[in-house]
């Protein structure tokens, strides 16, 4: 999971990209980068760390260029070294590119590229996308590529790539500086584009990047299509590969900012509706509580909806350290445990003597939740009930979320919901554990979403060879 932004038609692209990346910092904390195009030359700054660490202000201010690409990285393929940071550049033809997603056939692509004399230098799956595009373009002609060339090249690229990808790039097309975007045919990973009154264009993983810079949202990047954007001109959109849309439901549950707009509407509204469904299911169980408390921050809309639906008080029971990271995307369990100790500090008065309904978005590995409940138990509540506003995560994700192994999923080996909730009640030392049902979730999201992590039904098949590579190549 990562986040990208692309901009064209502004006086000084780099500082704007910097601001936009800060708005999507939640999508990746491991590395950040910005590249710009200036008078036919690409300039690049990227390094490990947060945006503020990887991109020194003095360097960004000195990077000229009226168009560019920015990226924040959370690696699911590659070990996360500096050479894996994005964006990437290829010199023939000149392309600056960044991507969000996860290719499943990386090994096959790299072998094919080597047959054509192209060697991947990083372990990031964005580089093969870039090299495949460059390969397809140069097969048509060595330089001076046209719009028709780009459409043909992206069409061939989509036939060669498997998995999820949402891509932003800057290159010369028909002799004009052009901002390009495309998504995989199913639209697994998000992408949007918008304009400013002066004719500038922006593409991004989430609409909050547009909000941060005063751009008006136009639409989502159409899955399976190629979009070309130039200053002061209308978008050019080519449908390349048609397929049914299956956007990732976990984006709406956990990853995206609640104020973002995606397919299906405002993320906040989706989480609120999921909370209402969980409240209805929870009430049917005959359970009772005195207070509803969210685990910050993702679960806040759902918890507020539950409290309103059940007629219970909603309370902030934890103070969150704003300088701590997201524990789910920490590189290993030791880091996640250490981060949790810094991240949440409970307020005794909210919990003491109360029947607490604790609300969270999901339980993936379970170690974080176990520590949270233990922390609450030290405050002497009379009861602790856990409500999860998504179904159990039972299957690995191969499209860009960091859960590629069934063995590390706490629900991976227990297929019966009642048995699972009973087991987790004991494991977490709760009075009850309640997941939102698949039917409840589908009433909110519809059936046309990727929910393979819940059902095991993958929209794009993943071979055992591909699964093995992802398991072996994931970070420890």
Walk me through the structure.
This protein is α+β, with helices and mostly antiparallel strands. The chain has 2 domains: 2-246, Glutamine Phosphoribosylpyrophosphate, subunit 1, domain 1 (4-Layer Sandwich); 261-458, 3-Layer(aba) Sandwich (Rossmann fold), CATH 3.40.50. It is 34% helix and 24% strand. The protein has 17 helices and 21 strands. It has helices spanning 13-23, 51-54, 57-61, 106-115, 126-140, 147-160, 208-213, 249-255, 267-284, 300-310, 333-343, 348-351, 367-377, 417-428, 438-445, 452-455, 464-473, and strands spanning 2-8, 31-38, 41-48, 67-73, 88-91, 94-103, 163-173, 176-183, 192-195, 201-204, 216-220, 225-229, 236-239, 261-262, 265-266, 291-294, 318-320, 344-346, 355-360, 383-388, 432-435. The two termini are 16 Å apart.
From the structure above, extract its key features.
single chain; Glutamine Phosphoribosylpyrophosphate, subunit 1, domain 1; Rossmann fold
Please mark out the parts with pLDDT under 50 across 5 or more consecutive residues, or reply none.
none
For the largest beta-sheet, the strand count, sense and barrel status come to: 7 strands, antiparallel
Overall 3D form: globular
- Beta-strand residue percentage: 15-25%
Q: How far from one another are the termini?
A: 16 Å
Give the count of structural domains. Answer: 2
CATH level-four homologous superfamily name of the largest domain: Aminohydrolase, N-terminal nucleophile (Ntn) domain
Question: What percent of the residues sit in helical stretches (DSSP H or I)?
Answer: 25-40%
Oligomer: single chain
- What's the CATH class of the largest domain, please? Alpha Beta
Strand order of the largest sheet: 3-2-4-1-10-9-11
Beta-strand segment tally? 21
Please state the average pLDDT score: 93
Q: How many helices?
A: 17
């Amino acid at each position: 999971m990562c986040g990208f932004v692309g901009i064209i038609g502004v006086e000084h692209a780099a500082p704007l990209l910097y601001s936009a990346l800060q708005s999507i910092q939640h999508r990746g904390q491991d590395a950040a980068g910005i590249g710009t195009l200036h008078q036919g030359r690409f300039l690049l700054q990227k390094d490990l760390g947060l945006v503020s660490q990887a991109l020194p202000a003095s360097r960004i201010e000195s990077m000229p260029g009226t168009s560019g690409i920015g990226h924040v990285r959370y690696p699911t393929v590659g070990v996360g070294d500096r050479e894996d940071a994005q964006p990437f550049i290829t010199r023939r033809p000149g392309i600056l590119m960044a991507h969000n997603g996860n290719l499943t056939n990386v090994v096959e692509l790299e072998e094919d590229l080597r047959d054509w004399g192209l060697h991947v230098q990083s372990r990031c799956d964005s580089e093969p996308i870039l090299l495949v595009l460059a390969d397809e373009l140069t097969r048509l002609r060595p330089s001076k590529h046209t719009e028709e060339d780009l459409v043909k090249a992206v069409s061939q690229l989509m036939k060669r790539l498997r998995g999820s990808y949402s891509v932003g790039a800057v290159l010369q097309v028909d002799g004009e500086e052009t901002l390009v975007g495309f998504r995989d045919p199913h639209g697994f990973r998000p992408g949007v584009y918008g304009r400013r009154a002066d004719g500038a264009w922006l593409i991004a993983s989430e609409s909050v990047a547009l909000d941060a810079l005063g751009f008006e949202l136009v639409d989502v990047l159409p899955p399976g299509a190629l979009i070309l954007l130039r200053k002061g001109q209308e978008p050019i959109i080519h449908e390349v590969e048609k397929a049914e849309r299956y956007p990732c439901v976990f984006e709406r549950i956990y990853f995206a900012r609640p104020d973002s707009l995606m397919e299906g509407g405002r993320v906040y509204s989706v989480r609120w509706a999921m909370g209402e469904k969980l409240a209805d299911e929870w009430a049917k169980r005959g359970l009772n509580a005195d207070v509803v408390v969210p685990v910050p921050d993702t679960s806040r809309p759902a918890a507020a909806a539950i409290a309103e639906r059940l007629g219970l008080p909603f309370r902030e029971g934890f103070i969150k350290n704003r300088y701590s990271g997201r524990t789910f995307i920490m590189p290993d369990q030791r880091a996640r445990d250490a981060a949790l100790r810094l991240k949440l500090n409970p307020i005794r008065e909210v919990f003491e003597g109360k029947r607490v309904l604790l609300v969270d978005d999901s339980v993936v590995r379970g170690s974080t939740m176990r520590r949270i409940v233990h922390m609450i138990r030290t405050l002497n509540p009379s009861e602790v009930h856990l409500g999860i506003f998504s179904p159990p995560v039972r299957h690995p994700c191969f499209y860009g979320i960091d859960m590629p192994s069934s063995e590390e999923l706490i629900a991976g080996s227990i297929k019966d919901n009642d048995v699972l909730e009973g087991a987790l009640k004991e494991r977490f030392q709760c009075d009850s554990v309640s997941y939102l049902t698949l039917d409840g979730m589908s009433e909110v999201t519809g059936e046309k979403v990727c929910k393979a992590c819940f059902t095991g039904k993958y929209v794009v098949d993943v071979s055992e060879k591909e699964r093995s590579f992802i398991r072996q190549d994931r970070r420890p």
